[in-house]
Design brief:
alpha/beta, 5-stranded parallel beta sheet, 7-stranded antiparallel beta sheet, 13 helices, GMP Synthetase, Chain A, domain 3, 2 domains, Rossmann fold, globular
């Protein structure tokens, strides 16, 4: 029998065409109005932001153009962790839901949403899903974490808004995930990049051909897949499209992966204003310069962000009408976490740099983990690399030699100890950069 869903190609559809294609000048005018409103509300209703503005003697009256946002103080994750009640801009009785992170790097981070905030996240996510070709006829299987994490909720709210069938499986029980894909004819699979590969690995062991099912679109979250990984996902799942989802608990419904320029994300300009700043000095950088993403929310009622330092390292590509039709500002999809950067023998190293080298070497790798032992005078470094297939000893030694040379030539450091580990060993909760002191 011919599966019509599999033959259906992914079509770009505008959920809210007027807003998604709003002329840039009109968008900037709208952003300025929303920015002033956000700052006025924060001054009036947030004890935390009011104290900050009084200390710096700046408020909404001083915001006459978008560039004036640079006069406002920055907000850090620690500020949000330590001042939940003071940041809150509405009485707690108006809070519709809260989201809480795990707190693995400090105190748990709590974010609050009013019902209007939830609706706006759903709106932003509906735009993203529609842009990726999701329609009311689709079956979207969500394998990300529900519960107190923001995780799956953003995409769930967006899919419900579209009218697609949502299967809220959550993570784990991989064999069950495969049975559900078969039983309900899942067309869109949403989950962590690494978990897509875990599903593929288990399917092979079960003798299941995922490419023969109804799957059409894969949406990867948590980590950006390399070009090689995207090709493998398309081959193993039969995807027509693999899209990258970028956002966070602090800024859900943030962006959409560009269809004509997959190396970029469009940031929804009616919901967020973005800057890129130097990670150390916090000096504002120009377009094309790599730095830390600072985010200001423009319509959040309960828990606004004003120049929030995200610790995500990227490039601001500017705002112009794209070939895909969107007019919203672009940032590079090649995003590093400042938290993942480590100094190894005096050189800054990001695990993503090594992932890129592996991809160019056509090594079938999953996650990588860099471990630096600073207890030794020479700072011993160990690189762990997941491989989804058994490699012969000769193949391992060949890859190690080439990888060491490329890391030395491109990054400037020598890593003697390279270890291949079974796929799935470095799960989503394992840190990609570990320093032993």
């Amino acid at each position: 029998m011919i599966n019509l869903r599999r033959l259906q190609m992914v079509e770009q559809v505008f959920w809210n065409k007027r807003m998604e294609t709003l002329p840039i000048k009109a968008q900037e005018k709208m952003q300025l109005k929303l920015l002033r409103s956000t700052i006025e509300r924060a001054y009036r209703s947030s004890k935390f932001y009011r104290a900050r503005m009084k200390a710096t003697q700046i408020n909404a009256r001083g915001i006459r153009r978008l560039k004036d946002i640079e006069r406002m103080p920055f907000t850090t994750r620690q500020d949000l962790e330590n001042n939940f009640r003071d940041v809150l801009c509405v009485p707690f009785s108006r809070v519709a839901t809260v989201r809480v992170t795990s707190g693995t790097t400090g105190k748990p981070l709590t974010i609050a949403h009013t019902q209007r905030d939830v609706d706006n996240i759903g709106e932003a996510s509906a735009r993203k899903l529609s842009y990726h070709g999701v329609t009311p006829k689709d079956v979207l299987q969500v394998t990300s974490t529900y519960g107190l994490w923001q995780g799956a909720w953003s995409v769930h709210w967006g899919a419900e808004r579209i009218g697609a069938c949502v299967i809220p499986v959550g993570p784990g029980d991989t064999e069950r995930q495969i049975r559900i894909i078969k039983r309900f004819g899942t067309t869109v699979l949403y989950g962590a990049t690494n978990y897509h590969f875990r599903i593929a690995e288990v399917a092979k062991k079960l003798g299941e051909n995922l490419a023969g099912y109804s799957l059409r679109t894969g949406i990867c979250v948590a980590e950006k897949p390399s070009s090689g990984q995207i090709s493998r996902l398309k081959e193993e799942f039969g995807y027509n499209l693999v899209a990258i989802d970028y956002g966070a608990t602090e800024f859900p419904g943030f962006s959409v992966n560009c269809s004509t320029d997959p190396a970029s994300h469009h940031v929804w300009g009616d919901f967020y204003l973005v800057e890129v700043v130097d990670p150390k000095s916090h000096e504002v950088l120009g377009e094309g310069e790599r730095g830390e993403l600072a985010i200001t929310s423009l319509q959040r009622e309960a828990y606004p962000l004003i120049r929030y330092l995200s610790k995500d390292i990227t490039v601001l590509k500017g705002c112009e009408k794209c070939e895909c039709g969107l007019t919203h500002a672009k940032i590079a999809a090649d995003i590093d976490r400042e938290d993942f950067m480590m100094k190894f023998r005096g050189t800054a190293v990001f695990p993503s740099q090594i992932e890129s080298i592996l991809d160019q070497l056509h090594v079938p790798a999953g996650r990588v983990q860099m471990i630096v032992d600073k207890r030794t005078p020479r700072e011993e470094g160990t690189l762990k690399v997941e491989t989804p297939e058994v490699l012969s000893n000769a193949r391992q030694e060949s890859i190690k030699t080439t990888l060491r040379d490329d890391i030395k030539n491109r990054i400037g450091v020598t890593i003697d100890n390279i270890v291949f580990v079974p796929f799935g060993t470095l799960g989503d909760k394992v840190e990609k950069a570990v320093v032993i002191k």
